[in-house]
Amino acid sequence: MRKNDQDMMYLFARLASFGQGSDGAMDRLSWTAPFLKAQGFLKGYMESLGLATQIDGFGNLTGTLPGTDPSLPPRGLWLTP
Questions:
Q1: CA–CA distance, 50 with 27 (Å, rounded to integer)
Q2: Could you read off the pLDDT tens digit of each residue along the chain, which spans 81 residues?
């Protein structure tokens, strides 16, 4: 398995751990403790990659990787845990 594949598998496994029940089912409703923990983890992960993060009033987490030419529009990644 390549390193990028391993990184993605780690990321997905880690996110899945927030709100996972003993039976393996996922329960992570918006604004619950598991949601906020997953969002906090993902925010930290994105920031560790150099992305500027923002959470809007609906709980959507966005990450923007600043470019070298400020005259160009930003490219972003939109994920909701």
A1: 30
A2: 577 888 889 999 999 899 888 888 888 889 999 999 999 999 999 999 888 899 999 999 988 887 888 888 766 555 555
Interatomic CA distance for residues 1 and 47, integer angstroms: 25
**Hey, which residues does 63 pair with through a beta bridge?**
53, 77
Q: How far, in Å, CA of 69 to CA of 29, rounded?
A: 39
Quote the strand ranges of the chain, DSSP E: 52-55, 61-64, 76-79
> Residue 53: phi, psi to the nearest 5?
-110, 155
Phi and psi (nearest 5°) for 31? Answer: 70, 5
Stated pTM of the model: 0.76
